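anyone seen this seq b4? input:
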Amino acid sequence: MEAAPFFEGTKKLWEVWLSRQQPDASQESEDLYTIPRYVYTLYFPETQVISQPDQTLEILMYELDPAVMDQFYMKECATAKDVTLERIRDLTPGSVIDATLFNPCGYSMNGMKLNGTHWTVHITPHPEFSYVIFETNLSQTSYDDVTWKVAEVFQPGKAVSTLFVNKSSKCCTVLSLPQKIEGFKHLDYQSAMFNDYNFVFTSFAKKQQQQQC
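predicted toks r here
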């Protein structure tokens, strides 16, 4: 038996929900196809103005430097605090940080500042599939420096960054040019504009150092 299309299930949920908002409505008005246009715009407005600044930067890193990843293995006397102080803390100074170093390996932290800035780092250090993710809502006019600092700490071979900013965010040049990271070249750059948000996707690869003769 063929499964019902996704839209059919969604349509039925909307019909039930809207009928409950109009208990005196006739049976006919519960059909999604017969609901007046003004009802859609009442419950599902096409645009919602967000007055508060909102932004999310996410950096995903692969093929990381094994020497850097070695610090995220549980060793004798090693603690999450030690690792945080050594490599992580200065990514967003002035934060209260809660971190965990897993056994036998792996690291995860969450940080927050008094101004509401929050950020997180998760690390899988295995050489076969090393992976680091950095995410923050830090408000900046440009994220080039933040991205460079993160790449400098973890030394990835490849990286992907995604950035969502709304029209109230002070990062107003998000769609102008790709991010610039010293020592990396761009592989791809995509951008999109939504009702109240802009989105940018950028992928990088580390430049190969020229061998000295």
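Strands lie at 55-64, 96-101, 107-112, 118-124, 131-136, 156-166, 184-193, 197-206. The CA atoms of residues 3 and 185 lie 45 Å apart. kinda curious what u guys think
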